[in-house]
Amino acid sequence: MPATFLRLGAALLGLALPAPLLAQAPCGGDFAGFLDGLKQEAIAKGHDPQAVAQFFATVRQDPEVIRADRRQGVFQLDFTSFARRLISQNRMQVGARKARSEAATFARIRSAEGVPPGILLAFWGFETDFGAVQGDFNTANALVTLAHDCRRPDLFRPQVLAALSLYEHGDFDPASTTGAWAGEIGMVQMLPQDILVNGVDGDGDGHVHLKSSAPDALMSGARMLSALGWAPNQPWLQEVRVPDQMDWSQAGLQTRMSAAEWQAMGVTPRSGSWDSDSLPASLILPQGRKGPAFLAYPNFSVLFEWNQSFTYVLTAAYFATRLEGAPVFDAGHPDAGLSGAQMIALQKKLQAMGYHVGEIDGILGANTRDAVRDVQQKLGLPADAWPTPALLDRL
């Protein structure tokens, strides 16, 4: 499954230029004119004019990319539904086989980067079904189309130039390289700039081939996580039980406390002992106080640089714990959530009340959760950030 909520890590890792700021091709407008502007920008930044001409010779605008960018309905599912859809028995079995077949690569990764196999297996499985479904969008077309579109041009314009650099290195073909609609390439779906910065030749053939080489893909993914702040050999997520009553407003990524402090509030590990006694951790209640509950350690936040969807990241992090031996989570008995249309109605009401909820998209993201928590507190309701039809009616 391609990562459809793009991380910002690539933009943050932008290729710095020592020269004065150069004019960038403005987004929108005539596509041919936009391409000409990109070519001029690439040459001004030091790319070979002949290589630039060859790279852009086959590039075309792809309207299906824009349609895919506007289509995000799967992320309107609640955590339990989303997790059950993505974590199939087949993915569990294939993940276990891949852990064995790539054991030597995972050992190298753990030694070099401190990233456990489960994390990489989870993204490998979700992004491409372990390499089986890598996407059939022409990558150069996708990147240029999204750079031309004015929704997120500053994210995608550098990706076009990074793909040009990969082409000059012999590791990208603008006519035939394919991947996800948003420009990610290979088994773990990395953007061109991430490949330039964090690509690793894991199999020693002199190239970084994320589409065909599992060692290259896995070691590059681990290097990227490390660069984004992954703390070696530390936990990321642990399932917990919560009491019937507590200060629910303390749940959420905005609050971090030690395991001892959480335990004093009645939070306990669902099984075994705490993964860490000292690391600060956040209590996550994806479906409110009656649903699943997890403690998220600092490494959990690093995963948002891979994908910005809260539900996707939580599901991937949980899948990684399953692949490392954790049991199936306790779904609990959460209150009914909102449909997509109801969520849009809620977001509109919250926005009218002065809350910043971001895009009105029917997705329960971090901003909407924060607003819901604040409204629940003001109404004297359990402030667990889980919106219900009853809350919508109250507003």
Q: Can you describe this structure in just a few lines?
A:
InterPro entries: Lysozyme-like_dom_sf (IPR023346), MltB-like (IPR043426), MltB_2 (IPR011970), Peptidoglycan-bd-like (IPR002477), PGBD-like_sf (IPR036365), PGBDSf (IPR036366), SLT_2 (IPR031304). This protein has 395 residues and is mainly alpha-helical.
Descriptive overview:
Strands 4-3-6-5 form a four-stranded antiparallel β-sheet. It has a two-stranded antiparallel sheet with strand order 1-2. About 45% of the residues lie in helices and about 5% in strands. The protein has about 400 residues and is mainly alpha-helical. Among the domains are: about 235-325, Orthogonal Bundle (Lysozyme), CATH 1.10.530.10; about 340-395, no CATH class. Helix 5 packs across helix 15, helix 10 crosses helix 11 (about 190-200) and helix 11 (about 190-200) crosses helix 12. Residues about 1-20 have low confidence and may be disordered. The protein has helices at about 10, 30-45, 50-55, 65-70, 80-85, 90-100, 105-115, 115-130, 140-150, 155-170, 190-200, 215-225, 260-265, 300, 310-325, 340-350, 365-380, 390-395, and strands spanning about 135-140, 180, 235-240, 270, 280-285, 295. The two termini are about 35 Å apart. It is globular.
